[in-house]
Amino acid sequence: MGTIRRMALENVFSWSKSRDEQFRECQRKYYYDKYLSWGGWDASSPRLTRLAYIYKNLKNRWAWKGETVHHIIEDVLKSYRSGRPVTLEDALTRLTEQMRAHYRASKAKKYMDDPKRHPGLFEHEYAVAVPDAKWKDLHDTSADCLRNFYGSELFKELVEEDKTSWLIIEDLEEFEHDGARVYVKLDFARRKGDTVEIYDWKTGKNDAEGARVQIGAYALYAMGKWGVPLDRVRAYLFNLSTRSPRPSPQALDEGLIEETRSFMSRSIAGMRQLLEDPARNIPKPEEVFAHTEDRNYCARCNFYKICDKYNPSLRPDRAATLTGRA
Going from the N-terminus, what domains does the chain have, and what CATH number goes with each? Predict the structure, then answer.
């Protein structure tokens, strides 16, 4: 019987709106997240690589809230699509159990041994003082998001309609632009008549202006994937933090599509300038990736412990980390 060989994972260059935001906020953080952490899923990787991977997977409590609500809604909709309705009470129970389990595992720092199975919270790793009442409020507002979703006219319409019209539920998709993979993750998409509708769930304030390029990328994907012209694509922000939420239509026109393409081209070109070998996605030395000048941003950064920006004495510590003496 022959030996099964596993293909080595390749760090392929790609683009996404979140990747662009990180690159613009701090190139050094971008380097840690996309390059230094590569291979850190292996517990036997070099210690600095492993730490970078652990820190990469940390989430602050607000991102954790949004991700958890998204996951519960994803599970609910997929269950409905499979013919297994989920009551609001059951959804709320799942939310509470999941948040409790994640919180306890993070507080015990289980993410240090298994960062993928046990998501870590920034507040626990960096000892940020958060009163218990604030954690409770985070759970309660997450539960409110679920209640608002279940109470919406959109949800009532979805559970009654033919589920074969549903196209995507939280699926990571890709298309190509300027020779780069572009990743998009649509919260929900469906066919409605001769149109394709795309929904983006929000658990905080709506930021229509900040979402413009993201919405443009969704539209580009939809046109290529489902062969629909732009005038048959609809995009909506759906704010779950408001009672009786309603879809907020987002403008889609050729101007936005051209703006999105130009934005992606400039962003991709900027990222590639910091690559020693663009074809193989090999970065230039770490020092080439500039630090942010925003000290407040550094205080919120997952990689603060391994970055020397505001820690002049950190270089010796990092050397010790590399040799396993940290």
Answer: 61-151 (no CATH), 162-272 (3.90.320.10)
Find the DSSP H helices in 174-313. 212-226, 254-272, 295-299
Instruction: Identify the DSSP state of 293.
Output: S
Give residue 133's Cα distance to chain centre: 27
Measured in degrees and rounded to the nearest 5, phi and psi for residue 202 equal -125, 140
Provide the token pair at 37: 């952490």
Predicted local confidence at residue 314, as pLDDT: 59
**Contact partners, residue 265, CB within 8 Å, separation at least 6:** 177, 178
- Could you tell me the pTM of the whole model? 0.90
Point out the residues of the chain with pLDDT beneath 70: 1-8, 206-208, 310-326
Question: Do residues 265 and 178 touch, judged by C-beta distance below 8 A?
Answer: yes
Around 182, how many Cα atoms within 13 Å sit in the side-chain half-sphere? Answer: 25
